[in-house]
Amino acid sequence: MEYAIHLDSPSPDLAVISDALQDVDPAAFADLDRDGHTLRLSTNMLDSELIEALARAGHPIQVKQIVRLPSVCCGSCSG
User: Fold this and answer.
1) The whole model's pTM is what?
2) Residue 35 and residue 45 in contact, taking contact as beta carbons nearer than 8 Å
3) How many angstroms separate the CA atoms of 79 and 70, rounded?
4) How far apart are CA 32 and CA 59, in angstroms?
5) Structural domain boundaries of the chain?
6) In contact, 26 and 71? CB cutoff 8 Å
7) Could you say which of 23, 30, 40, 60 would form a disulfide bridge with 55 (CB–CB 3.0 to 4.6 Å)?
8) DSSP for 57-73, written as a single string
9) What is the distance of C-alpha 32 from the center of its chain?
10) From the first residue on, what is the mean pLDDT of each consecutive set of 10 residues in the chain (79 residues)?
């Protein structure tokens, strides 16, 4: 799943966030949108796991901040 999460604080430390996410999902990937406030995530984590991981990373969020993005999968990898 891909997510966009608006953070209240600008320019969060992506290394800290990535570490917290990868403790739960080793394949999780995080980056920032150009605005510096929108965290873009690719992970298989549940909403509750995202909330807990981001809180551990120093960026507590509420479920209403989590936006699931539409899939960009074309399906050809799986046949």
Assistant:
1) 0.84
2) no
3) 20
4) 14
5) 2-64
6) no
7) 60
8) TT----GGGEEEEPP--
9) 10
10) 86 91 96 89 94 94 92 72
- Which residues contact residue 69 at a Cβ distance below 8 angstroms, ignoring those fewer than 6 apart? 1, 2, 3, 4
Amino acid at 47: D
* Encoded tokens for 79: 């046949």
- Residue recorded with tokens 């539409």: 70
- The amino acid that residue 34 corresponds to is R
Q: Which amino acid is at 3?
A: Y
DSSP assignment of 17-39: HHHHHHHH-TT-EEEE-TTSSEE
Residue 62, class by beta-carbon neighbours within 10 Å (0-12 exposed, 13-18 middle, 19+ buried)? Answer: exposed
